[in-house]
Amino acid sequence: MSLPVLLARLWALAAGVAALLPVRRQLWPVMLLLPGGAALALWIAAAHGWPWLIPPALALLSVMRNPLRFACGWAGAVLRGRTPPPLPR
Fold first, then answer.
1. How big is the CA angle at 19 (ends 86 and 35), to the nearest 5 degrees?
2. Could you list the residue ranges that cross the membrane (predicted)?
3. For the chain, what are the domain ranges?
4. Could you say which of 10, 51, 58, 85 has the lowest number of CB atoms within 10 Å?
5. What is the pLDDT of residue 83?
6. How far apart are CA 75 and CA 55, in angstroms?
7. Is this prediction's pTM over 0.85?
8. What CA–CA distance (Å, rounded) separates 26 from 85?
9. Could you tell me which of 11, 18, 1, 2 has the C-alpha nearest to residue 66?
């Protein structure tokens, strides 16, 4: 098994643990995991071919959907000059 695939499996375990946290406590662990997941997906694609980018990208979006939704809503509010939404309960 190649190093990027092994690290992606460890990332998936860490993301699964973060996904089990209550939504209010998911934000910061997930914000640390997001860049690593994207980098691992690109590394897997570079090492094994670009079609292999699809499974890790879908896993990244699936596991991180709530924090991504919050981050996009927060960024959209800031860009529009509105008050960012509060953390979910």
1. 80
2. 41-61
3. 3-80
4. 51
5. 83
6. 27
7. no
8. 16
9. 18
Average pLDDT value over all residues in the chain: 85
36 or 63: which leads in pLDDT: 36
| Core vs surface per residue 49-85: b (16+ CB within 10 A) or e | eeebbeebbebbeebbeebeebeeeeeeeeeeeeeee
Percent of the chain with pLDDT over 70: 97
DSSP 6-61: HHHHHHHHHHHHHHHS-HHHHHHHHHHHHHHHHHHHHHHHHHH-GGGGHHHHHHHH
Contacts of 89 (CB under 8 A, 6+ apart): 23, 24
Tokens of 50: 């670009």
